[in-house]
Amino acid sequence: MDYKELIREAFKARESSYAPYSHYNVGAALLTKDGKIYRGCNIENAGYTPSNCAERTAFFKAVSEGDMEFEAIAVVGGPAGTPEGEFEYAAPCGVCRQVMAEFCDLEDFKIILAKSEDEYKVLSLNEILPLAFTPKDLE
Ligand code: THU
């Protein structure tokens, strides 16, 4: 799978972002090992704490549909109205990293942080969540 396509999907997901409080819109596109893509956006709430990040929306959509084998996730984020070409990298929060560690291989799963389809970096889960606590720890 071309990471460009996954990034494009993350930008499309960002269009659905519901962020009336932070005005910070995030989109994610989660690629399964069999090539399916689940989009996710952040969804905020007047109660603040019930808010959900884009990455977790994508993961929970996938898992609730029976998909649990993942290859990569592309993430794009920035303040509402950010013009094309002016995005900064938006890194997943700690809670989302922990959700990734529940389902993904620490070395093989790739996190693609993108400013655009052409400007992105690829990180492993190990890099962004060192010393992860995973299901293996409970075996
Ligand atoms: N947010 C995400 O969707 N993903 C992240 O990894 C970082 C933060 C959202 C949560 C909240 O709706 C807004 O960005 C500002 O924190």
Helix-residue proportion: 25-40%
Total E-strand runs = 5
Shape: globular
Amino- and carboxy-terminal Cα gap: 33 Å
The hetero molecules present are: tetrahydrodeoxyuridine
Gyration radius, to the nearest Å?
14 Å
Low-pLDDT segments, ≥5 res: none
Mean pLDDT: 98
Structural class: alpha+beta
**Number of helical regions:** 4
Condensed summary:
The protein is α+β, with helices and mostly antiparallel strands.
Characteristic terms for this protein:
139 residues; alpha+beta; binds tetrahydrodeoxyuridine
Topology:
Layout: H1 3-14, E1 24-32, E2 37-41, H2 54-64, E3 70-79, H3 94-103, E4 110-114, E5 120-124, H4 125-128
The chain binds tetrahydrodeoxyuridine (THU).
Residues 19, 22, 24, 26, 42, 44, 51, 53-55, 92-93, 96 line the site of tetrahydrodeoxyuridine.
Your description of this structure?
There is one protein chain. The protein is α+β, with helices and mostly antiparallel strands and 139 residues long. It has four helices and five strands. The protein has helices at residues 3-14, 54-64, 94-103, 125-128; strands at residues 24-32, 37-41, 70-79, 110-114, 120-124. It has a five-stranded mixed beta sheet. The chain is globular, with a radius of gyration of 14 Å. The protein starts with a helix and ends in an 11-residue tail after the last helix. It binds tetrahydrodeoxyuridine. Residues 19, 22, 24, 26, 42, 44, 51, 53-55, 92-93, 96 line the site of tetrahydrodeoxyuridine.
